[in-house]
Amino acid sequence: MSSHSNSSSSNKNNAPPQDALRSAFSKPIPKDAHSRHSTFYAPQTNINRRASAGRTVPMAVLNLSMPRTGTMSMQRALNILGHTCYHSSLFFANITDCAMWDEALDAKFFGKGPQFTRDDWDQLLGEYSAVSADPPAVAFAEELVNVYPEAKVILVERDVEAWARSFSEAIVASTWSPLMHRISDWDPWFVGPMRDTHMRWVRGWIRANSREEMDAVSRERYAEHYALVRIVTPPERLLEYRLGDGWEPLCEFLGKEVPDCEFPRVNDSIALWELLALIARRGMRNAAMRLLLLGGIGLLVSFVAWWTWSRV
User: Residue 240 phi/psi, 5° resolution?
Assistant: First the structure.
C-alpha cells in the first residue's frame, strides 16, 4: 500500500498542472511563433485524398518511432535531405486528411470497414516519399513496412523513463485537457476532427480510456511497439538511431551527403504547448464564428416568423 501511494505521489509530482493548456492559452503569442510553427500557419489546401491519382513518388523512408522521440525533428531532417515527409502536423493545412485516417483506425481497431490496402495508403500518402510517424500513423507500423518493402525504416530510441515523462507531460496531458475537449466540441471544422482522430488512436492503439490508464500503459506500449518494428523489419532495412546522434548515421543509412547545417531540433515541450495554445485559439475563433452564424440564422428565423405572423 505504501509503495502504491509513493508511486501515485511521484506521478502527480511529475505531471504538469491540469491547467497547463489554459496557462499557455493565456499568454500572448510570441513574435517568432510564425517561423517556429510554419505548418500551423500554412493555408488550407482541402485536398481530397480519396480522389487522388495515387502514388506520384516512391516511398523511400519510414520513421516508425514513438511520439516524443523527435518525430517532427526527423521530418525536418528528411525534408532537408530532399524528401517530402508526411507528419501529423500537416493536418493543419489539410484537415480533410483526418477523415481518411479515421477510416484506417476504424477498420483496424473497431471493426468498421475494410482494412487498408496499398491502394488506400498510396491515396493517403502518395505525394510523400517519407513518413515520420507521429500519431496516428505510428499505429500502422506493420502495415507500412509490408506495403512499402522498398522503404528504409528508422527507429529512434530514447531513454524509456525520460520518454515516459515527456509523453505524460505533453501527449497525455493535452489528450485529456478539459479545455481542449470543450473547444473541440465547439469547433467541428478544425480542432474537432483532429481531436476525434487522436482519440481513436488513443482508444484503439494505446488502449486507454482515461488519463490514468494512458499513463499506466505507456511504457508497455513503447516496448511492444519497438519489439514489433524490429520483428517485421528485415535488419538490412532498419536503422537503430539514438536521439541526438546527428546527421552521420542517418545520412550513411540513406546514402546522402551530410548537410552543412545543424540537425533540426524542434517541438520541445515548451514549443508543443505553444502550438497547442495556437490550436486552441483557432478553435475558439471558429467557435465564435459558429455562434455568430447560428445566432444570425436564429434572428432570421425569428424575423420571418414575426413578419409572417404580422401579415396574418
Answer: -90, 110
Contacts of 269 (CB under 8 A, 6+ apart): 166, 169, 170
* pTM across the whole model: 0.82
Q: Which three cell numbers stand for residue 256?
A: 546522402
**Whole-angstrom Cα distance, residue 65 to residue 51?**
29
Calpha distance 70→211 (Å, rounded): 23
> Grid coordinates standing for 14?
511529475
Please write the tens of the pLDDT for every residue from 200-248: 999 999 999 999 999 999 999 999 999 999 999 999 999 999 988 999 9
Which distant-in-sequence residues (6+ apart) come within 8 Å of 184 by Cβ? Answer: 191, 192, 194, 195, 196, 283
The single-letter code of the amino acid at 240 is: E
Bond preceding residue 136 cis, omega within 30 of 0:
yes
Cis peptide, bond prior to residue 259, ω within 30 of zero: no
Decide if 283 contacts 102 (C-beta within 8 A): no
If we measure between CA atoms, which residue out of 309, 63, 17, 40 comes closest to residue 191? 40
Backbone angles phi, psi at 208, to 5 degrees: -135, 145
Phi, psi of 43 (to 5 degrees): -65, 150
Distance, in Å, from the CA atom of 218 to the CA atom of 164, rounded to the nearest integer, reads 7
- Indicate the burial class of 283 (C-beta count within 10 angstroms; 0-12, 13-18, 19 or more): buried
Whole-angstrom distance, CA of residue 76 vs CA of residue 265 = 9
Confidence of residue 281 (pLDDT cuts 50, 70, 90): confident
User: Alpha-carbon distance 34 to 270, whole Å?
Assistant: 15
Assign 5 a pLDDT band (cuts: 50, 70, 90): very low
Angstrom distance (rounded) from CA 126 to CA 119: 9
